[in-house]
Structure prediction request, 124 residues.
Amino acid sequence: MSRHRLAPRPECPEVLRAVVGFDRPLQTLFAQVFSRTPEAEDPEAGSARDNKEDGDEDGEILLWVGTEPGELLDPEAAIALVAPHALIPDDLAARLREEMNAAAGKRDGAHQIEVKRILFGSQH
Prediction:
């Protein structure tokens, strides 16, 4: 799985972070935008909360697309979802395509297959 954390646009102070990436087991790109909340603004936590690699639980989810198998397959479409909220690197679409291509042909492990059966009724 790849994740690209994107800086919020200066004109979007309510945005805590935006993320796009590729989820190989689900064979989909995903796009997420998180807004600031009082908990995410905890002064005792400082900026560390916003910089945690796994800190996306902080903030309120404004947008989350790409939770179903094959839901979002176009890098430009994923980028378009977060572009109103985040600064987009020029090479992001190309990097997402490379990550998708690198995952082609990789098989799920036994645990991934079982989880897909539980969640989706099949392994897709």
User: Anything to note?
Assistant: DSSP finds four helices and four strands in the chain. Confidence is low (pLDDT under 50) at residues 42-51.
